[in-house]
Amino acid sequence: KNYENLLFDVKDGIGTLTINRPKSLNALNSDTLREIGETLNEVKDNTDVKVLVITGSGQKAFVAGADISQMVSMNPIEAAALSELAHKAFHTIQELPQITIAAVNGYCLGGGFELANSCDIRVAAATAKFGQPEVGLGIVPGFGGTQRLTRLVGRGKAKEIIATGAQITAQEAKEIGAVEEVVELDDLMTKVDEIAHKIMKNGPVAVRMAKYVIDKGADLDLDTGIAFETQMWAQTFATEDQKEGMTAFLEKHGAKFNGK
Ligand code: HXC
């Protein structure tokens, strides 16, 4: 299927969604958010996609935020609709059975940072810059920034980043836990590929369940979270993957998981 504002392809188990509006530094307008939502709904049911990578086209930007030229004349109803579109799409990313990796190739600002923070893992080019510049435009982050960033880096850092609107480097983002890996721009997709392949070697049900338990448990108290983990852990013993994984170990050869 051809999209106007993004590219999507699947190769060797890796789906790659590339936001493709390089002239506007891949800014997210409502059409783009709608297309992202459609693509994610396809990915959700596509068993050929084991890992989803989200990136931006060109060398300059991942996503430089929501599209300011569209937002400038919006009224509150239209603003709420735009935010709702983004929330739906970003929620779908979080709920996908696949692990999602943001390959942050450049400016990752505002709605772009919020998109990256909806992914499971963030890998950034050393040249990428991160920030929530919304207050400089007279608005607050509206695609989850006050919530997801805070959960990732804590209230103090989130407030510093959001209230100053200042950009931070990929290295700084890594130090505060907003980015997992930083590599040279030329090595970005190689690194992402390497992580994806490590993930794809493992038991598919277990990987899917691990994401689920981590996310669903994050908002629970520790005892309830542990009890939930125990239930999920026990369920893995009903899978063929568990038999295969443990037998292969004991027989000293690699496991061939079938995801059942
Ligand atoms: C629309 C954008 C854009 C954006 C860049 N462009 N960011 N258009 N929305 N968010 C456009 C520019 O207007 C310009 O178009 C072209 O992309 C290249 O950008 P330049 O500014 O010329 O590049 P440069 O000088 O290198 O500066 C790069 C930059 C800057 C630092 C990233 O573009 C910038 O500050 N952008 C805005 C970042 C921002 O405030 N994002 C947060 C948006 S609010 P022309 O036509 O002139 O070539 C947000 C809220 C989310 O995301 C929640 C809302 C509900």
From TrEMBL:
The keyword Iron does not apply. InterPro entries: ClpP/crotonase-like_dom_sf, Enoyl-CoA_hydra/iso, Enoyl-CoA_hydra_C. One of its GO terms (molecular function) is hydro-lyase activity. Keywords: Lyase. It comes from the Bacteria. Gene3D superfamilies: 2-enoyl-CoA Hydratase, Chain A, domain 1, Lyase 2-enoyl-coa Hydratase, Chain A, domain 2. Belongs to the enoyl-CoA hydratase/isomerase family. This is Enoyl-CoA hydratase carnithine racemase. The keyword Signal does not apply.
